[in-house]
Amino acid sequence: MKSPVHRCRDVEHGRGQTGNGAGGSFLQAEQRIPIPKDVITSSSASAMWFIRDACGIVCAIITWLLVLYAEFVVLFVMLLPSKSLTYSIVNGTLFNTLAFLALASHLRAMCTDPGAVPKGNATKEYIESLQLKPGQVVYKCPKCCSIKPDRAHHCSVCKRCIRKMDHHCPWVNNCVGENNQKYFVLFTMYIALISLHSLTMVVFHFLNCFEDDWTKCSTFSPPATVILLILLCFEGLLFLIFTSVMFGTQVHSICTDETGIERLKGETGKWVKVPCWEAMQVAFGGPFSLSWCSPFAGLSCKKNTAEHVTVPQGEIIEEDVIEIPLN
User: Fold this and answer.
1) pLDDT given at position 100
2) Is 175 a catalytic residue?
3) Pfam families recorded for this chain (predicted)?
4) What is d(CA 229, CA 140) in angstroms, rounded to the nearest whole number?
């Protein structure tokens, strides 16, 4: 899920060909130089990640409150007063399982480093450690003073460059990038499923209550029951449409190997795209299995004891486009 590749372009961008003269050969345009993964991994990759953005925190809290409201109406208005024990157990188990997975996916999407590039690594010492070839250039982000990897974009909310950034979502209070896109996809999928499930139960509940006495359909008064069900129906319909569209958009982005911000900026065709199924395996962490649907896959309480490469310290280079000196 991590791209161990930095953006390195040939200064002779318009030539992209190999010369046969005595002057040697030119490097091909868009040539990529592999960099060790530990070098470009964020220093916070093994720590808790949380964005201190007031709007995002409020939106995340609202998301949880809406799910809890749906939980309250489904359990106390529709299932517990139901005459059929089997109906209550089956639907209660299904709804609670989906709601739990939705909230777990939301937490993982919110608290997972989306692929942040280390701040302040645009130093002469760091660039020299990359061992790039003469005639190439690297690009510095002027906002966070980091060497921008290929397909990275700066997020003004996270205040970091994010690898394969799709967009910043206030509902999960985080960017959607190469490390947490799976959890965002699962979050939208499970929210869409519980919305569809709750709408189905509301329809059946209304039909049963119309045929029976309203006072026996719920422990609440008939007016309160109707209001609670109408609010749940409105919430379910709204979020079913919204999350279904987001789910489809994210799957399309994965399959086309093109993020939303890349499509918006017209940055297509600047990298070698991988096939759809291979891109899905990369995004979801391996070959197809039940772990694709689990927000807990890859979660470990053990600390990563792997030795990380230390980024050489030094003064930040002022230039945004840094040319590697020619021999």
Assistant:
1) 97
2) no
3) DHHC
4) 54
